[in-house]
Predict the 3D structure of the following.
Amino acid sequence: MESYFQLKENRTSVKTEVLAGISSFLATAYIIVVNPTILSQAGMPFSGVLTATVLVSFFSSVMMGLYARNPIIVAPGMGLNAFFTYSAVLGMGVTWQVALGAVFWSGIVFLILSVANIRTMIVRAIPRPLRFAIAAGIGLFITLIGLANAKFIVANPATIIGVSPVTPTILTFLAGLLLTAILIVRNVKGGILLGILFTTLASYPLGRWWATDMEPLITWQGFLSAPDFSLLWQLDLVNSFKLSVVPVIFAFVFTDMFDSISTFVGLAEAADLMDEHGEPRNVQRSLTTDAVATTISGLLGSSPGTAYVESAVGIEAGGRTGLTALVGGLLFLPFLFLAPLLSVIPAIATAPALVLVGAFMVRPVTKIDWFKMDDAIPAFLAMVLIPFTYSITQGIIWGFLSWTALKVVIGKRREVSLALWIIDVFAIAALLL
């Protein structure tokens, strides 16, 4: 294990990697319940999607750990599941079987692009200031997710967003945030995991005694449930290959590709997971794993799998190798039978960790030359649009397009590579479609 994962070279240990894997799992485990909730609105059986979600997360994360050796969890992506349900099935009127076929074909496109090293070329075409900005933008995005999960930030018709009034829930979140911050500052091993456990335990009185001001945070839905394999191999490969479904396949390809690429780049920059050439470590193997995750998602009965930004929780906890992803992936498997247990870990429990990980993710922003405005403006747009649009893809699209436009107009066309021109064409196509 030491030699395979190169623990000493990465200045880590088995204990640190295991704790990091647990932390990453707890930060991403919500997808086990949330993904079926969204896809069931497309007419798919909830229990079948839950089983598919667990299997995709298990196989993909284990592959990321053993093959790509990166500490990144892979699971069905948020946003992609919403597109699957609300745009493809309910909006365009395709059946969920055809939509699963579109997921499969988009995975095949990913595999071709990955094996041909085209996706790696795309990564290398991203200008360094945009890489730093993407890392910082993802950090702000993760923080926003954490604040929203804690209901600290709420919708406000007058100001778009606002701060929630002080409630027992908010006080519990703030207590968890303070404790987790103290543990991180004091470099306590497993500090993030301890913060998650503390906030979970502190939430129990809310669910039992203070449920009058809001819905209970802690619910008990049982202990065991049998897996449902009814969605395996239910995709429609023939009808999903028709011309009318091409826009759906293209949307999956483009959105998933740039979500995963930007996640790899952002996490690598923030955690210094770089190779000797200054590129994200094992990027081709990581992107190949992401492609396999999407392909098997269609076969198993889920929306596309992708790299998870919440992996930053485990990375901040010290995870630096594939052992973190391996541990996180293995922890998904028991929930084929234990899914009801997730009800005892409320969203508020991981919210402090997500908020504080933002501080870790924004570090690369200091590497941007903010006085070189033709670099700074595209970087700024990419950074702020990721959280403001609630979409990593939108942030990176407008970062690319503004970079190209500014460089051309001011006479620095040579700073726009051929690969970036090609990316811009697909970015515009994605916006139009």
Notes: Strands lie at 74-76, 153-156, 160-163, 305-307. The first strand starts at residue 74 and ends at 76. The chain has one domain: 2-220+231-432. The mean pLDDT is 86.
